Structures are given as C-alpha cells and as structure tokens.
Amino acid sequence: MKIVVIEDEDNTRSGIIKLIGKLGPDYEVIGEADNGLSGISLIEELRPDLVIADIKMPQATGIEMLQQLKERGHRHKTVILTGFSEYEYARKALQLGVFEFLEKPITAEDLRVTLEKVKEELNFQTAAGMPAGNAAAQAEQLLQQLLGREDIDRPLLSSYIGQGMGLEEQLPLFLVTIYLGKQFDNVARHMLPIISSLLKPYGRQAVCSVVQDQSLAALVQPDSANRELQHYVKEVLLPAVRNLDSYAAISVAEMNDVSRLKPSFDRLKELRKWFIAVEGSDVVLNVGQLERLQLERRVLSYPSTIENKLKMAVSSHTPDEAGRHLEQWLDFCLRGVYDPQHIIDASVRLVSAMLQTVSGLYGERITFDYQQEWLHPILSSQTRQELQAAFAVIARQLSSIRPESNPVPYSMIVQKTIRILQERYQDGVTLEEIAAELHITPEYLSGLFTREAGRNFTAFLKEHRIRKAKELLLESGLKMFEIAQQVGYPDPKYFSRVFKEMTGLSPAEYQKLNRG
C-alpha cells in the first residue's frame, strides 16, 4: 500500500512515518508534505492508495485539500488526524468520503488497526472487480461492469460508483441508453467522449459502451432537482448522436438509486423494440411512455390476403410485385400502434411462407441459403429502420432469384447415394458406409457428390434432416425430442442448435409461426 502523509507538525509527521515503517513491508510511505497545497501537488503526482492528513493545516486545510482533490477526480482512501475540538471539520470530512479518523495523540496500535482496515478494504475492492484509476475512469469502468457482467458484487460496486461520482441522495438519478445497432463498431468510440462532454453541463455523469448490446449507456444526475432530463436529451444529445448515426435510438429511465441500474437497463432493452412502432426522428422514449404504448397497442391480425398475393407473385416470377406486397405489409404494420413483437412474429411467418414457395419453384438449396439471411435480421430488429432495412434486402434479393435452366442430372452413383441417404437418414448413415455398399472409395464418392450436388455429403444430409423435421413440426403431434430422434438427432439440444443454424428459428419458434 502506497501512503502519503500530510501534516504541518514536523514531529507528528515524522513519528507517523516511523510507526508505519515498523508495521511491515505492506506499507510504504512514498511522500510527505507540511501543508494542504503541497499535499495536493504531491497526491496529483504520486497517486497514492492512502492519504493520512491533518484536518487543520496552513495554506489549505485538510477539508479544502480533499475538496479540491475530489473535484479533480481523485478517490484514494483518506485517514484524517483530528483533535478533540474539531468535530465540525470532521462532519464535513465525512461528507467527502473520509475512510477513518484518528484522534491525536496517535498510538501505534491505533495506526496499525486503521491501516489493516484500509488494506482489507482495498483487497476487497480488487476482489470485487473495482478498477484502478481516477474517479472518472473508475466510474466508467464500474458502469460497464455493472451492465455487462454477472460475476460481480453488485451492491458493493453500486456503492463505489455512487461514491466515485459523488452522487447525492436527494437528487434524481437517470440511466440513458443509446442503441447504435450495426453502426456500433464504426461510431461508438468516437461518440463516447462527445456524449460525455454534452452531459457534463447537465450534472454528474459516467458514460460507457455495452458491446454485447451494441449500445452506449450513461448514468446521469442533474446538478439541481428542477432540471428536466428528457428535454435536455432531446434538444442537446439527440441531434449530436444523429449526426453520427441517423438511426440511433435513445431511451431514458429514472431510478431511485444506483442499485436499480441493471434492472433499469434490462427494462429499457426489453422495451426498445417499441421504436419499431413509434414514428419520428426526434423521439426519445422513457419507461412511462413505453408502458403507455403497451396499454394503447392494437391487435395485429395476420395478413393471410397479403401472404396469398405474395406467393402468387413469387410463383408468377414477378419479383417487383412481390416487393410491393412486402412494402404493403410493412406500411400496414407501421401505421398503427401494434406490439412490436407481434409485428416481428407475423413478419417471420409471412417471409417463411414465401420461402416455402421459393423452395418449390427454385429448389430447397436456395431456400436454405436465404433462410438465415432473411429471417435473422427481422428477428433481431430493434428499431423501425432496422426492420425496414431487413425487408429492403429481401425485396432486392427476390429480384435476383432465377430458376436453373436445364439442370444437369446426377450420375448413377450420386443418385444411388441420395436414395440411400433418404432411406436411412434417421439411422446416422455415413458417407463411408454408402461408399462401401457402392464398392468405391469414400474419397472418390465425396469428390463426386460435392461436384454434382453443389455441397458436401454432410451438408446435404443436414438439409434433408431439417426438411423432414419441418414437416413433422407442422404435420405431426410429436414432442420435440421425438422429432429430433425421428430425423437422426439423439440429442434434442443439438437438434435445436442445428435447426436454428439452418433456419434462423428454433424448432418451437418455427412451429409457432407456421402452424397458423
């Protein structure tokens, strides 16, 4: 532990330093000063773990010194030396987060016990994930940990971030999230300091990136109780954010204290999809508005008529007409206040029905290629712009789908291989087994099959199994583990993982969205 001693009485300062030297190698005095101003410079330069300071000193008192250091972002542990008549000073010191008081004259035992307490506290902070650095850096790192990690002591870190930012109980506290989506990698690093500088005039703030959510988060406390954050964010923050990412979505939640940080973040994340249902480039949503939208939502009916028109347009090879029907559906969804999850579910069902028509016309290979590419962006849409972008990709790619002309027939060997695969796909048939039955080498069969079928044996087998699983999901009353076994997957969890990789949906989601 690195220690600085600030004391104007030479004998007292010298005595404390000698006592510390006798307490063992864990404690090292790295600097000393005889007044508050010199103490500030010394602490700025040396960045100690602990400061031992007299409460009354020339040029700057211990209180004034701590106040200036706090304003400059220092959050070292502090032990104050105090006399019997100095308790008004002591009260002010408590407000500045002083760790402990030692009353003069100091005994060796008092000092030993106090330093042990400080050491335990520092060790505890390290174990709990408390980052090193000044208060601003610590607050940002702690905010990031509180939002992004589970293996932490949440109450302890919440307490530290409150101390580090100097949060006051009587003032409101807000969480602001800025969802960047696909632009996160391009703009997040540049946007962080801009957000921080824009929020500084409003009050205390810490800003961090939440990589797994593709968003930024800011913990904000105004410098007075009558400052309204929603207006400030809309008028000051939103325009700056939109200059860098025109599709960014900002949400705000008010909290009672820092312990509500993660639940508030999760709540905003859960409600963020309502940006799909809300129109306007100047919208900043708060929890109250989002909850009102939930109450005002209308029932969304599945567009069976649009589905039939869409399938007819695909069947008649008129992709422009199909694109218009997709646009018609999207316009209908976005005109009313519908639950965004219902919009997403119905959209997935609509596109899945279209994919089945594409499969019948152009072959299952094309369907497998497009399933992930079309369905995943819809499922992961968080804003209106992301959903519109997902549909734009589908409409564009529909125009590029062409039926194969004069497909080359398979050779007799590959035809026999496919027939055996279709007969025994449930039993875990392998390329080596089929090659042995056909009296050829596995290497020869593998190369011939890949060349003629356009994908290797394993991929072809997987596609066939998932195709059969789809039929069973929609037409049988079998349980999920029974379907998995029927199509050659003894492990239902592995079956679910493969199914989602191939289709973009879990088996349960596929069944729910396509059974009608």
Automatic annotation (TrEMBL):
The keyword Phosphoprotein is annotated on this UniProt entry: yes
GO molecular-function terms, A-Z: DNA-binding transcription factor activity; sequence-specific DNA binding
Annotated GO biological process: phosphorelay signal transduction system
This protein's record includes keyword Transcription regulation: yes
Chain segments annotated as coiled-coil in the UniProt record: none
Residues bearing the modification 4-aspartylphosphate: D54
Annotated protein name in UniProt: DNA-binding response regulator
